[in-house]
Amino acid sequence: MAGRQNGGNIRQYRRPLNINLGMLIFLAIFLYIIICVGLYLFRDEKVVAYRVQEGFLSADNVYTGIALRSETVVSSEYAGYINYYAREGERVGSGQLVCTVDGSGQLKELLDEQNADDASLQEADLRELRTAISGFCAGFSQNSFDSVYNFKYELEGTVLKLANINVLENLSQINSAAGGQSVNLCYAPESGIITYSVDGFEQKTAAELVPEDFDEEAHEKTQLISNELAGVSDPLYRLATSEDWSVVIRVDRTTAAELEESEYVKVRFLKNRYESWGEVSIIDNGGDGEVLAELSFNNSMVSFATSRYLDIELLADAESGLKVPLSAITTKEFFLVPKAYVTKGGSSGSTGVLREAAGENGELTSEFVGTQIYQETDEYYYLDDSSLRVGDHLIMPDSTETFTVSQSASLTGVYNINKGYADFKEIQILQQNEEYAIIKSNTTYGLSTYDYIVLDASTVDADQLIHD
User: Fold this and answer.
1) 259-294 pLDDT per residue, tens
2) Is the dihedral of CA 212, 217, 218, 222 positive or negative?
3) Which is the most buried residue in 123, 150, 224, 414, by most CB within 10 A?
């Protein structure tokens, strides 16, 4: 019994605390991540980087102009169905077959019958189609969606030319069956670029244009389509016969005076980014508003033969350089120190100055203070104020002459973050608009292409570490 009583008095010992080192490391990492995420989410400003690239400002120099050419509208001498055999936009020679006018309708039936068959194009024909499609895709803009319909008509004309050209071999049989010349051949009266549309601008000169003519949405154009029925004197096609052509734009009087003074202006065509020089002629009708500027060219007409309205850029005043947003630009104060007081020293041979300092026994001595150069003039360097203070006495190397730091000046620049911290870089602004500035490239203390800068300079301080 005594044994049971003693055995019933059982004491429970606490198990020793086993510290798991892996668990502690995991908890420390987890807390660090939570703190970092919290600091990122709840800080007032987030640093956003911007990649510097070359560019230009010319938004104010973009105009929509009217293309004028030496054009002839060729009309039909017969009534019937029209079938074209030359692709729109290509050059035809004098006397070259352009189309046929089918008075009996037999040729139309023959063409429809052939098109219904599973005819295949040759490889050379397919290459021509692929080239046309690739060229259209490269220059397509959603702002000019109506160009899709123009391209559709061009493509249809190309297909008809390629697939139906062999039908001409049957013309003699069709005319014999009809008892006469029912299918009439139409040849180009002279050499030129062919277009299958008319719009009433063919005979207009720049002086005859009125403000309403520049309303592209109200512009009426008649598209001439193959296999359509035409009457006598109806237009068949349009022929541009000269490489001399012009683009007329509306400009204010200040711009007109600048263009007239320059006589020639460099133009970029937005359709294909082609650049050319145009001779300037100003047409002033005496009104109070805008005047007309005619830019004349003697080449590349064929590239724009099918377009009446062209978007162009005037490159006369367009500065090229590095393009940065205005929000990235700031100013910063620097000390001006004579160049003779700047030297190299320290263990790394960095740039700096010799500053007076008091030794242990109170005697004056010198110490090397490393500092970065941000810009220079003929006499002075712009030095950072993080290491120097107003009143510091600098010693000229190998001399007893001293200079007291006091004079300062500001520089315009941006914060470069290539090295992980906000490093001020001086910039020289060439041109700016409401959003961007063009700055000079390849400067000694400035930026280079593809540098990363702070998009909003107000979100950082100089030398601040930048976390991704």
Assistant:
1) 888 899 999 998 888 899 999 999 987 666 789 999
2) positive
3) 414
Report pLDDT for 118.
Answer: 47
Q: How far apart are CA 199 and CA 213, in angstroms?
A: 11
Tokens matching residue 235: 């237009």
Say what the pLDDT of residue 200 is.
Answer: 92
Q: Which residues contact 322 (CB under 8 A, 6 or more apart)?
A: 52, 53, 54, 55, 438, 439, 440, 441, 447, 449
Question: Tokens at residue 84, please?
Answer: 């074209």
Q: Answer whether residue 1 shows pLDDT above 50.
A: no
User: Given a cut of 60, is residue 357 above it in pLDDT?
Assistant: yes
> How is the chain split among helix, strand and coil, in percent rounded to 5?
25, 35, 35
What pLDDT score was predicted for residue 164? 53
Residue 61, Cα to own-chain centre: how many angstroms? 14
* Residue 125, both tokens: 């024909």
Tallying the residues shown for the chain, one arrives at 468
253: which 2 tokens?
Answer: 């009087």
Helix, coil or strand: residue 131: helix
94 pLDDT higher than 70: yes
β-strands 192-195, 436-439 pairing: unpaired
Task: Kindly provide the residue ranges of all beta strands, DSSP E only, lying in 212-329, ordered along the sequence.
Answer: 222-223, 229-230, 235-251, 264-269, 274-283, 291-297, 309-314, 320-325
What pTM value is reported for the model? 0.54
* 138 contacts 101 by C-beta, under 8 angstroms: no
Residue 160 phi, psi dihedral angles, 5° rounding: -60, -40
Residue 429 has pLDDT above 80, yes or no: yes
Name the residue with higher pLDDT: 137 or 342. 342
What integer is the mean pLDDT of 166-179? 57
Positions of E strands within 132-221: 183-187, 192-195, 197-198
Q: Where are the beta strands (DSSP E) in 258-407?
A: 264-269, 274-283, 291-297, 309-314, 320-325, 330-338, 342-345, 350-358, 364-370, 373-376, 380-383, 393-395, 402-404
Cβ contacts of 142 within 8 Å, gap of 6 or more: none
Angle, CA of 200, 202 and 206, to the nearest 5°: 100
Give me the sign of the Cα torsion angle 58, 64, 69, 74.
positive
